[in-house]
Amino acid sequence: MSAAELEATAKAMVENGKGILAIDESTPTIGKRFDTINLESTEENRRAYRDLLITNPGGKEYISGMILFDETIRQSTSDGTPFAKALIDQGIMPGIKVDTGAKEFALHPNEKITEGLDGLRDRLAEYKTLGAKFAKWRAVITIGDNIPSQACIDANAHALARYAGLCQEAGIVPMVEPEVLMDADNTIELCYEVTEKTLSALFSALKSQDISIEHTILKINMVISGKQCSTQADVQEVADQTVRCLVKNVPAELPGIVFLSGGQSEELATAHLNAMNANNPELPWPLSFSYGRALQAPCIKAWEGKAENVEAAQKALLHRSKCNSLACKGEYSSDMENAS
Fold this sequence. Notes:
The structure is a single chain. By secondary structure, the chain is an alpha/beta fold. The protein has one domain (about 5-335): Aldolase class I (TIM Barrel). It contains twelve helices and ten strands. Helix 7 (about 150-170) crosses helix 8 (about 190-210) and helix 11 (about 295-305) packs antiparallel against helix 12. The longest helix has 21 residues, at about 150-170. The protein starts with a helix and ends in a 12-residue tail after the last helix.
């Protein structure tokens, strides 16, 4: 893929109020999702669920791409069409999660380093033949007692840059995802500080390894209060602090930024994104979404693993996709949640 094609893919991922649907849950993670509806996590049940997500009529109006898991990119729709081709036929770009998970970071208790670089060049070549246009690698930054360490931030930034280089070499747009977790009791101010350090290290590593920023997408957490913090920042403060952190630390040449939901409720994740876009029309890059659970939760609840519920599940997914598409333009209202 030429530089022009990489540029076109990156821009298409975040254009016209569209965002990314993350359906790249590992087998253990999707098993936990299925537990909530008392459904066994068999390969066929996983295929059937991803099938309804991928073939959702009208999804292309709001979704530019979907991040797939290794198992998923090798599966097909009920009529035998490979999932990647089914997406491409709709005008939706297939993506692929390529990291192998966050593991214990040696000599750094309670911190994680993401693995998966070994053999990645060959895996990316295969994924490209299977139809992947972009990829994703998630790093995990934990806030806690005396953490994150600078060593953890730097090690994950270095790995993200190595991954990004291999992606661009293979003609695949890298989505770099350093996630500052929101599970602790930290204030929004501490989240800002850690997110700023993380972004600074990330872009320093990308530039030092000659990564083309113009052909890279950033997936990042919002600057937000930890779930256990006694004081929860309101929607406007989250929007303001997040935008301030991004403007200060993200190069203007980046083609776009997508947010992870990080355990926020569906409606809150949408409201935060909307507030950022409604009040900041002149940002150098589009702000969009790459949500997993915050898009899927109503869908999987409506589905319950039953074929007769597929239409209702797809309708629930379409509603959340539309709400977030409007939030990309600053045009979302909570009144839309009650619309039929």
